[in-house]
Amino acid sequence: MNLAAGNFLIPNGTFFVCLAIFVIVFLVIRTMVVPPILKVLEDREALVAKTAEDNRAAAASYEDADTGYRAALKEARADATGIRDQARAEGNEQLSEAKKRATAEADAAIAKTAEQLKAEGERAAETARRDVDSLSAVLASRVLGTNVSPSSESAAYESTGTVK
Known about the structure:
Distance between the termini: 184 Å
Order of helices and strands: HHH
Number of helices: 3
Oligomer: single chain
Structural class: mainly alpha
Helix content: over 70%
Low-confidence stretches: none
Mean pLDDT: 86
Number of strands: 0
Largest sheet: none
């Protein structure tokens, strides 16, 4: 045994005891420690995969919602444009109607005023004709020095409006 004690290549009993302890610890770790760690890692990996899938689904849902939003916005803008155009058309129509009414009222007022002016002009002309006859008789009487009265010719002028 002397030979075995000096040579480190020849195994002694401590090597086998250490080897047995190593195998026992290895088996205990492999059966008691590794499975829960692997389970936690698998659960974490599943959770990461589920989160990635949820992110993809959320992105797709966002894209769908964004597309719907853009379509609704486009439709709303088209509706607003239609309403604005319709309001402009109605406004223009009301404006033209108001212009027509104002023109008609102005024409009626002008016609009424023209009639009144014509009537006043005729009354003024009649008054002037009557006054002209008497004034001309008075003027002729003063110029001639004799009494001149309005003639029948002026009476005829008054009834027809023309001189005979």
